[in-house]
Amino acid sequence: MIRNLIGKFHLFVAPKLFLHTRNFHRINKTDRREFMMSKFGPPIDRSMKILDRSFFQKDVNLLVASFPDPKFLGQFVKTCKPDILYLPSIKHIVPVNENSKGVLLREDIEDINDYKSKLSPITVEKIKEYNISIQPYVLHLDYKFWKTDDILRAVLPEDLISEIPTGFAQAGHVAHLNLRDEFKPYGSLIGQVILDKNSKVETVVDKVDTIDTKFRTFKMNVLAGKDDLQVEQSESGCRFKFDFSKVYWNSRLNTEHERLINQFKPRDVVGDVFAGVGPFAVPAGKKDVLVLANDLNPESFKYLKENIILNHTDSFVKAFNLDGREFIRNSPRLLLEWSTESKTVERKKLIKRRKMNSDSNEKSSTKDYEVTTVNIPKYFSNYVMNLPDSALTFLDEFVGLYSDPKVESVIREIPDFKLPIINVHCFEKYSPHEEPEPSLEELYKRIHKKIVGLIDHEIPLEKCSFHLVRRVAPTKPMFCVSFELPEEVAFRKK
Ligand SMILES: C[S@@+](CC[C@H](N)C(=O)[O-])C[C@H]1O[C@@H](n2cnc3c(N)ncnc32)[C@H](O)[C@@H]1O
């Protein structure tokens, strides 16, 4: 069902520009779309390989209702709505000459000798009453008027225009496309139009190949704009700096980052096994969550440390550069070391106070620091494992997490000790030919079975909570599964 909907979606996105006008009801949709395309659509040149903005010029013949006395203009617009031109990005009130203004009439009212037959009686009446003159009007359209989709439709081969690639992910000033092979020859044309039409984009890149590297980074090809992939991006109230070609970043995960961060409470301890440049760890640290953040990619580790400092979270977030397995295995010991070394962490918050000076009657402000002191707990409340391709396979590393006698004795002594919640991301891909298409419940069962196998312990399915993060492809959903690590698994002797 979901798969079918996604398939059909592509069929209905075509010419967006003209779906907004209000006179839909007059003619059938297809005729109307054709009429609007021929009247307002851009000129077409399918041989264009290098973008020629000056090619996109068009004069559209319309009629304008010109007012000798502008005081009636507002009333006319209100009363005669159905006969007025309403198109996004075209103003319907226009200057007619130096002294007077006019209102553009609906797009299909074109004939100066026969406009009355197309107008509603009330408009005809108002034209007479307000002494309005109807005149020809030429509306000049240029490159600025058309949207990315319209321009690309006018220049790409006809067999490609049903799925124009106008969507992109953005990180800082970089727009990131993932062009299918058939669009690659038109990459720079597509990139240039996207660059022109999105004021915050300064560089457009395309993934060179689809093969994921170990660190989930991709070779990039700069299609348009400046060759600079050093980006700065804001997310969850924090600033992140990184080289987009060397680390993993996906702005589409913003909601997922915030969803989990919202579940963490101040003084929780989180182990972020595949932390990247810190989109979970740094904002969590900012709300006084203690985080041990790890990434194997030396470049991610470098930017993770920079982002921790940049956001003043260095007392709450510690960075590690280990393989995920090694990190999980050693995490209880790393936390004990941290808590033994420091016992508490402090967060200094700058407080500005404004006060009235009683002598001079003037306001002055003083700066003060409010210090929050947090005792470092000795056990984890959460782990985050966002490496959806393979994170599940790391789960066996949690077997015997607290089996080390030193760790076990410390943990067992804590009266209110809680077992950690493991938040593990995964894809549960299925064949597009699978009939019937598996339901979400069926996919949950498949993931649950893998988890039980990996930790070698039965957990009731209802004790796992599943969250559909997004579909990276119609049959490749990404989930986050959260479950409490069973005590028997955590303390099992290795
Ligand atoms: C999908 S990214 C997620 C990054 C970040 N948590 C986020 O949400 O944007 C996965 C991260 O895992 C790191 N990684 C890959 N294999 C790893 C391993 N074996 N151990 C630790 N980190 C690994 C990659 O470098 C990458 O930064």
Short description:
Keywords: Cytoplasm, Methyltransferase, Mitochondrion, Nucleus, S-adenosyl-L-methionine, Transferase, tRNA processing. The chain is built from 13 helices and 19 strands.
Descriptive account of the structure:
- β12 (290-294), α9 (298-310) and β13 (317-320) form a beta-alpha-beta unit.
- This protein has 13 helices and 19 strands.
- 27% of the residues lie in helices and 26% in strands.
- It folds into 3 domains: 17-57 and 146-228, 2-Layer Sandwich (GMP Synthetase, Chain A, domain 3), CATH 3.30.300; 59-141, 2-Layer Sandwich (Alpha-Beta Plaits), CATH 3.30.70; 247-342 and 376-491, 3-Layer(aba) Sandwich (Rossmann fold), CATH 3.40.50.
- The protein is elongated, with a radius of gyration of 31 Å.
- The chain has 494 residues and is α/β, with parallel strands linked by helices.
- The strands form 5 sheets. A 7-stranded mixed beta sheet has the order 13-12-11-16-17-19-18, with helices on both faces. It has a 4-stranded antiparallel beta sheet with strand order 2-3-1-4, with no helix packed on it.
- Bound molecules: S-adenosylmethionine (SAM).
- S-adenosylmethionine (SAM) binds next to loops.
What structural keywords apply?
binds S-adenosylmethionine; 19 strands; 13 helices; alpha/beta; 494 residues; four-stranded antiparallel sheet; Rossmann fold; single chain; 27% helix; Alpha-Beta Plaits; seven-stranded mixed sheet; GMP Synthetase, Chain A, domain 3
